[in-house]
Amino acid sequence: MDAVPRYQDIQTQALSLHLHENPQWLALIHQTRGVLSITDPAFILSGTSFSASHELLKTVEALFSGPDADAMRCRFPARYRWLTQHLGLEEQPMPTCLALTEYLQKVPADTVQLVFASENLAQPSSMMGHVFLKLSGKNLSGERREHAVTFYTDANSINLPKIILQNLTSGMPGFFGMLPYVEALHQYYSVENRKVWEYEVLGDRADNELLRLHLFELRSVDIHYFFHRYNCATLVDELITIHTKVPPSIPSLWTTPKDVVKRLSTMGRAGVADVIVPAESMLRTLEERFSGKQLTTLRKDTTQNLLIDTTLFDSDEAYVLAWEFLHAENDYSFAKGHKDKQAWRVRKEELARIQPHKDYQLEVPQTGSPVAAIGDSQVSVGLIHRDGSHYFGASYLPASHDVLDDVDAALAGSELKLFYTKLLGDVVTGQVFLDQFVMYSSQIRPLWSRSFGGISRGFRMAYEPQRSSTLEYQHHWNVLASVGLTLGLGRAARLMFDLEGGIGVQAHGAYVIATPKAGLLIDATRNIKTLISAQTSVNPFGQQGRASKVDVLQRLAIDRQQGIEFGVGVASGSATAETATSAYVNWKYIF
Known about the structure:
alpha+beta
């Protein structure tokens, strides 16, 4: 066997080949666009004098010299594999690495999949969806194993202002975990009622193996989670680069889970998606197709017997819908722990005996595909008329959407705004000022269901204008929460009721805010969406009185990325007999 070259010679060769500029190397050390994402000294060997080239030199020194070289090869098997391949070196037999050997025996990676779990607005860390990897294959014993590799933070707290500020400054503790895939799927699919898309990451076994070795390198590494800068999407995006050898092609201020899926698809490295629809979503979809009497009968069937009344479900379509409902109800009860596995299996066998043999096929909506979704950022410019004055307006929303945007039907009426900024410029004086800054706003609007209920809820932190009881515009900071109901009026309209309250702050002090709201969202066609809303602010700015307004807003889509929005509003105040009007027209671009 040839002798291993001196590590100084290997360093010289590595630099001459510009390996420190290779996209895979940058992904292996988690440097993206010049920024180092992981700074843990246990992972970054060059410490405070970091650079991609210096880290390369320190890695070569650690792997190819000194008494600790064997231990470092056990610690960084992916870096060692990658360097030997790119430098044309013969890979030396690995020393006894108990942890690595156990890992490779338990975690096969014959197949690597990119998994997207749909949005969960109820959790701040998953408001834009979640993306992670799935490794699957047969272990050394010939048993099939599937593992989820996921990066997340614990943001389940009622103290949302603290979570937001911590995410922007010091970051939150990040957890890089590997667990059985069935456990991850149960959490997203059964507990949180989220659709799941699985895409095979196309490549060869060498790509899979390098990625598997690198995931071992990330164990026990201290990683900070920043919602806007380093989250599940940015980490997985780096892992995808290791597998595909292709760096992110378009600089992005905010990488979202959908962006990662879209990038893989654009590269042609995403296989056909397998979509897993939660039982609760299936039940919500199906119950809209039944009359009250039919639904009552089906509810009895789930607890008494499984004979479908063919006089009540007297067509092929009705019978299939009824059978699908009973099937989904069985899965839902098992997922929620209302029945054990044995009872679930017995009911499944009983259902198989009465399975319809009809030509009619149930079509389940496959909305929400991350590949087909619109962008997560937007800008708009327009003209605003307000109380006799005219303004130019410009706004920027880094993430993610407002109530009029074209989103998944399950999110209709919802809103998620992070760091929305709106500037106005007076047409006459030229004065430019900040009119609105929304640090965080989310509005979750599940449709009220006869079977599942559904409470709308929201939270908002913003600096924005509000009318007083004399109809004067004043700006203030506010922190607001809301609860309400959203009712479906057919498939094209939603009726929304909310009670919003919280704290407002101006220079003279803080005050309580209370605002009942009502709205009608009409989405009759894909290209036109209308919102009619009314609200009354009680004792605005802590002063006696009321300020009410009615707004009519409409979005006209040009295409999926562009649209024109129109709005008119009329306001009234308890301290004046006059009314005030406003209107605007905006061009919006989504990217």
